[in-house]
Amino acid sequence: MRRVYLDNAATTPIDQDISNMMFEMMKNNFANPSSAHADGRRSKIIIEDSRNKIADLLNTNSGSIFFTSGGTESDNMAIQCAIKDYNIRNVITSRIEHHAVLYPLQDLERQKKIKLSYVDIDDKGEISKKHLEELLNKQEKSFVSIMHANNEIGTIQDIYFIGDLCMQHNAIFHSDTVQTIGHYPFDLQELNVDFIAASAHKFHGPKGIGFIYISEKTTISPFLRGGSQERNMRAGTENIYAIAGLAMAMDIAYANLEKEKKYITSIKDYMINKFKQEMPAVNFYANCADLDNSLYTVLSVNFPEHASSEMLLFNLDIKGISCSGGSACASGGSKESHVLSSILPGSKRPGIRFSFSKNNTKDDIDYTIAKLKEIYIS
Ligand code: PLP
For residues 167 and 200, what is the distance between their CA atoms, to the nearest angstrom? Predict the structure, then answer.
């Protein structure tokens, strides 16, 4: 049976060239990069070349890039280390952050180590800049964690503005950029940010690898202690193949960024119009249908009252379509999405997230709409 994959915000398929390269490297470059012999030095060079490539693409110094196991570890590292090392009490975030941000912050709040405030958001998921400014306490150094783009509804925050505001208030700014690295250009010389987080599997790289950017002006102690890898900042033998795969995925993503953005936007636009023409009772969450003001990879849709998101997802899956209800973690269970309930409290309409990649076609969309119509008519 045909399968259509529209769950690219959860993860993207790895590019074949990347998996081929990694497979060859696994056979040929097995030496431990910490070993002083020639084989070890070759592995070390692969890691440093990868770091340099990533730093160049983001216009920063390679010394600011540290490899981690992905977005979750990078978010946890920034939050836990910066709050501890800078002795921070005043922490500001939003209710629509990924759980990789919310859970460590809520743990610290439960332990009474921080005072956690949530910046107001509107029904599009956009933060109130005025409220953020009010929360930034000039007397006390604050830590702010606001994501660049939301993985469920695709809302994009103005992180350049937030970064400048944080700088004016001497606050530390962390942004979860997991959904935008590899999809949007970044200039880290221009962006005032202390930490950003990235994950290779969101842009056709391997899973379990990512990085944290730590600005030169910010110093934290290591999150994982042990060996002296990553200049003592992240202990553990490096996953050389995955690091090389991450760098190659970044290279491909940024070399084709504009072309792919245009193509994926056209797929999203096609689906929006299909819904408008063929299923007019469907609504779009937040700014989703505004192509200039939302993540071009995400279309979050609100269906007429009919069945739960779980039933709809189950029926779509049976018909060969993979997508999510809210975030991937929420899609497996019956837990309501914290993002959707934050922007539209009390809504009973099932929410489904379709998310796109360069591999999707208009035919995938036609197939999906046809199957959705069958579900709604039956
Ligand atoms: N932050 C956001 C916004 C995400 O979408 C995800 C992945 O779903 C993560 C963090 C976690 O990233 P990883 O899967 O690399 O741990």
Answer: 29
Query: Residues lining ligand 1, judged by CB closer than 6 Å?
Result: 70-72, 75, 98, 100, 147, 151, 176, 178-179, 199, 210, 328
Q: How far is the CA of 198 from the centre of ligand 1 (A)?
A: 8
Catalytic positions:
329
Q: Residues 321-356: pLDDT tens digits?
A: 999 986 444 444 456 789 988 998 877 677 899 999
* Model pLDDT, residue 350: 74
CA 327/CA 101 separation, integer angstroms: 14
> Can you say whether residue 231 is alpha, beta or left, with left for phi > 0 and alpha for psi between -120 and 50 degrees?
left
Neighbours of 316 (CB within 10 A): 21
Please give the distance of CA 177 from its chain centroid, rounded to a whole number. 5
Ligand 1 pocket test, pick from 202, 203, 337 with the greatest ligand atom count within 8 Å of Cβ, gives: 202
Spatial separation of the C-alpha atoms in residues 156 and 264, rounded to whole Å? 17
> Would you put residue 193 in left (φ > 0), alpha (ψ -120 to 50) or beta?
beta
Q: How many Å lie between the centroid of ligand 1 and the Cα of residue 118?
A: 20
Cα Rg for the chain, rounded, in angstroms? 21
